[in-house]
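Tokens for chain A. Residues wanted.
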């Protein structure tokens, strides 16, 4: 995204996340605060305070979870920056992230196989 602040490896700016969360709060008639930000993103107020005190940045795994809690994909919040290899997400340096990706791909494959089996049995 053009207005995103460049962050170091593995971190993203909270600015686009906060803008989306604030819009959701406004639509819901909620008063904006760190507590509201925390509630909407599914984190504690303490976590939000840490994001702010660390220069307005959020670790990629927290960014991912916050996006999911907003019913969005991180690409919807951080755009193509989400896929940058130097962020630690896709470069293979984050073993936990790789394990989560592999697990998700396995579940998707299993679901596709189940759907295909169901489709075949309906045709026969």
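Reply:
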């Amino acid at each position: 995204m053009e207005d995103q602040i460049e962050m170091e490896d593995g971190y993203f700016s909270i600015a686009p996340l906060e803008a989306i969360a604030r819009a959701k709060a406004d639509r819901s008639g909620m008063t904006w605060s760190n507590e509201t930000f925390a509630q909407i993103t599914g984190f504690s107020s303490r976590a939000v305070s840490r994001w702010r005190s660390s220069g307005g940045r959020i670790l990629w795994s927290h960014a991912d979870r916050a996006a999911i809690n907003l019913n969005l994909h991180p690409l919807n919040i951080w755009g193509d920056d989400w896929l940058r290899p130097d962020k630690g997400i896709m470069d293979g340096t984050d073993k936990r992230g790789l394990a989560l990706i592999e697990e998700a791909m396995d579940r998707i494959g299993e679901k596709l196989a189940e759907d295909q089996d169901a489709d075949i049995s309906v045709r026969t």
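The radius of gyration is 18 Å. Residues 11-87 form a domain with the 434 Repressor (Amino-terminal Domain) fold (CATH 1.10.260).
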